[in-house]
TrEMBL record:
Entry-linked InterPro entries: Ribosomal_mL54
Gene Ontology annotations for the cellular component aspect, listed alphabetically: mitochondrial large ribosomal subunit
UniProt-listed PANTHER family: 39S RIBOSOMAL PROTEIN L54, MITOCHONDRIAL, LARGE RIBOSOMAL SUBUNIT PROTEIN ML54
GO MF, any single term: structural constituent of ribosome
Name of the molecule in the record: Large ribosomal subunit protein mL54
Compositionally biased spans, kind Basic and acidic residues: 110-123
Spans traversing the lipid bilayer: none
The species this protein was found in: Ephemerocybe angulata
Amino acid sequence: MSFLHVARRSPRVLVATSRSFASTSRAASQVKASADAVVKKQASQASIPKSSCPQDTVMKGLNYLKGQPQVLALADDQYPEWLWTILSPKEYPDDGPGGKADRVRRKRERQQAIKDKNFMSTQ
């Protein structure tokens, strides 16, 4: 791990990536992780605003075809529910070593290491 990678990581990631082979600490970390996930989900739901413009607002720049009516904003309940969560980060269930979450985490670490190595080679 390079210095830049450690400096960019949040303290929460440093705690979450530590592994232990003791079953009691793993169970405790799973309980803590599930509690943290519930708190994060509640906080994200509370902080995600619905649309930023009121109903029937003219959406400039969306109508690029000539001779078509102007595009108007709809009411919030007329949009699909997945639209409001599209910008939230993807969460993978922790299914142990070698699982999907572990592979995604390792891939991100490898990509970051490559970026750090490339950055340091330009200095």
